[in-house]
Amino acid sequence: MLNLAEILTILIGCLLALVFIDGIRRAIRIRKSKLKVDLISSEKIDLDFEEEWKGYEEQSEIITDEEELGESYISPSSTLNIIHLHDQSQQVFSESTLSQALVFYNFIYEENGIFSILDSDNNLSFKILNGKNPGTFLNASTNDIALVLDSKNQTNPLEAFDLFIEVSMSLQETFQCNLLDEDRNLMTKQMIEHMKNEFHENQRQFLASAS
User: Which domain holds residue 169?
Assistant: First the structure.
């Protein structure tokens, strides 16, 4: 017959055993959960790395394509120089009025209704167009014209530009109209001088790099 002390010892031992077993079970469960979390994290890292690598490969392909395209991929800056002449009240510009105003210059009135201004060697310097659709002076008068010089296609770009500015200012004085830049902002003499100096400097740098 067990006495009370022995019974209490057995009960305490059983409780300790249960606590120990429960502890082991909790430890196993935590270990499994940790392993599961670690596996998920590892898969996510692999997925993120794969996506990042794919993005890098796509970016590399784009760069390679651009490098293969070379200079043709880069949009060249415009070589056009444009000056507008605008009269706010009247349709002062026509074939006849412009022909009279250009009498001291070497020009051709083309069959397509556009004026071509020539340099001293009879090479094209720039064109004068109707500033409104359809852009010609065929049976048309207008209050807006555009002088357009392409500096890329010039035998003597400096002479062409000087003539471009000279004719613009001569027409402005003849017709007493507004002189505007390509964005149709009013041009002052200081702006024209700056435009002229900038063009000459660009040509100087171009010739220096070419040589």
Answer: 80-210
